[in-house]
Amino acid sequence: MKDKIAPFPCSARNVFRKQVCGLKRRLEAIGCKAVCIGLSGGLDSTLALLVAKAAFEEMGLDDGGIHLFTMPGFGTTKRTKGNAEKLADGLGIECETISIVKSCRQHFKDIGHDGRTPDITFENAQARMRTMILFDKANMLGAINLGTGDMSEAALGWCTYGGDQFAHFNVNIGVPKTIVRKVCAWWAKEHPGPAADAINDIIATPISPELVPGQVTEKTVGPYELHDFFIWNFVMNKMGKKELATAAAKYFNGRFDGAQIATTLDIFLRRLFTQAFKRNAAPDGVRVFAFDLSRDGFYIPSDLGLPAKYR
Q1: Less Cβ crowding at N or C end of the chain, within 10 Å?
Q2: CA gap 247, 245 in Å, rounded
Q3: Residue 2 pLDDT > 60, yes or no?
């Protein structure tokens, strides 16, 4: 018998508690009392920070062990950078600004890139530069680099290999994007004030890695609501391509038309299989639901490719 098709049934409070407990367990196991987080002004890094703050409070650790870095690049907007700073200030945690523009320009010069063409190299170099900064800062501070990427991004491979795909430990990897938004909204409602105000504007901001100006993720890969529906029903209900399309049309009841469902489903299936190599080299993280996308949860060999039945 199939599980219910409604994706990721949960309460925001329970998701948050599992994340906090998972981070506490890792920090206690390795004897670490500090973390580094790249705070972008987006949903994922917001949730990672909230989880870290709660874990530190429960462990009796000082917030000074939470090291925040906002690293503006070529596509960073005033809105996201401002929200990152407002969130940190609202939580009473210092946030250091390290621009990656100068270092990326030098890197482009070193490798013979013109530094202007907004191609995949232009984008990925920024993600890798930020990751290098976070790892090196972690070394300097006796901390771990806390990954922020979520399950939806992992499923799609919507991350840079050797960049934001990697960290010492990831607290969000077991949480899909729609639930990340839900947990952030729950936290803001429970904790009114300046930090909550920043979070509410973060929730209202279009999702983007901001590697080039005007970049909006869902315009490229399709709605995360659909992707999270597909993840749940592909893994938990073992639905094939036709079943997924039919179930989505019924579940969303006109919110997405057939063409959008079909296009997004094709993107989901293609990327789920062809981007498996990123998941298979990913760091440890917290499992929140009945499955995750790790080797011990839901594993696709890196060289399988897209099976003919899903084309």
Answers
A1: N
A2: 6
A3: no
- Distance in angstroms (rounded) separating the CA atoms of residues 126 and 71: 10
Report residue 25 CA to chain centroid gap. 21
- Rounded CA-CA distance 140/52 in Å is 19
In the chain, what are the domains? Answer: 12-217+277-295 (3.40.50.620)
Length of the chain measured in residues: 311
The pLDDT of residue 4: 87
Share the mean pLDDT of the chain.
Answer: 96
Q: List pLDDT tens digits, range 53-74.
A: 999 999 999 999 999 999 999 9
- 36, β-bridge pairs: 67, 145
Q: Assess contact for 177 and 301: CB atoms under 8 A.
A: no
Check if the beta carbon of residue 289 is closer than 8 Å to that of residue 10.
yes
Beta strand segments in the chain, E: 35-38, 66-70, 95-97, 144-147, 169-170
CB of 177 closer than 8 Å to CB of 152: yes
Distance between CA atoms of residues 23 and 52, nearest Å: 7
Sorted by sequence, the CB contacts under 8 Å of residue 204 that are 6+ apart come out as: none
Report helix, strand or coil for 37: strand
Q: 32: number of CA atoms within 13 Å, CB side?
A: 23
Provide φ and ψ at 99, rounded to 5°.
-70, 140
**Mean pLDDT in residue range 168-187:** 98
Both tokens assigned to 244:
């997924």
Q: What is the mean pLDDT of residues 246-274?
A: 97
| Cβ–Cβ < 8 Å for 134, 110 | no
